[in-house]
Amino acid sequence: MNAIAPLVSQPMRPATSLERPTFALPEGACDAHMHVFGPLETYPSVRHPQYTLPDGTLSQYKQVMETLGLRKFIIVQPSFYDTDNRCLIDALKAAGDAARGIVMIDPDTPEKMLRDYRDAGVRGVRLDLFKRRDLPLPEIREFILNSAAMAAPLGWHLQFYAPGYVVRDLLDFLATLDIDFVIDHMGYMLEEDGLTEADFDRLLSLLKEGRCWLKASAPYRLAKKRGMEAVDEIAKAIVRAAPEKTIWGSDWPHIPEGGRDTGALLNQLALWAPAPTDRRLILADNPKKLFGF
Description:
The chain has helices at 58-68, 86-95, 111-120, 137-151, 164-174, 197-209, 219-226, 228-241, 262-272, 276-291; strands at 30-34, 72-76, 99-103, 122-128, 157-161, 181-183, 212-217, 246-249. By secondary structure, it is of the alpha/beta class. The chain has an eight-stranded parallel beta sheet with strand order 1-2-3-4-5-6-7-8. The protein is globular, with a radius of gyration of 18 Å.
């Protein structure tokens, strides 16, 4: 069987062309979801990546931070590298205390390597459930429990990159987890995948009552069929439900659309969270607590 042709990553939008913030960012404002890439000769990709090497280096992202007034950021391991975290770790070491990391790991990752990751600034494990979406639910639950057992002794949390229908099918199980966890991209509950308003309401209940956090990130990934206005309503509902357990991420470099305006995405937060006190929680206080700045 031939591999599916990868998406072609587009050139990065110059930082000088980004829309400037329309509101005052709180001190220590954090982008809680971005990715860093490096040259293939140094950091090879997985055998069949879903996209070509993005135009997204650490130096480019620092220009974005400077333009927008961001002060902290979280590097999330992309599927492009799977569990080879070398690019992420090197970027953390170069960035210093301004950054924290979320790695992907194998079940047999040595304890010493995990401790080294922690010392470099890693604070969580990303679980790619898109990759495992066709597995039986008991196997997915076992994968989650094994990952939690590796993360908990380090004081880490879990982050779920998952289709919304997998999130839905795991909600009751997730409510039993004895570890903090973050669900990317507002739960990724797409109508075209059969998700309903009732499913989203159950997710909000988990957010309010369990150890769940939600990441207000990548609205364009949810807006493909329903439109951005509908996604705005989803984000506003999340903030109304639990601003103290919501974080914001740019999803930079917006794979494969590097020309997206990161500043305009940041400014959507003014609509989602009109109260400055909520924006302070989402951009500063919550990341500080969750990532240990």
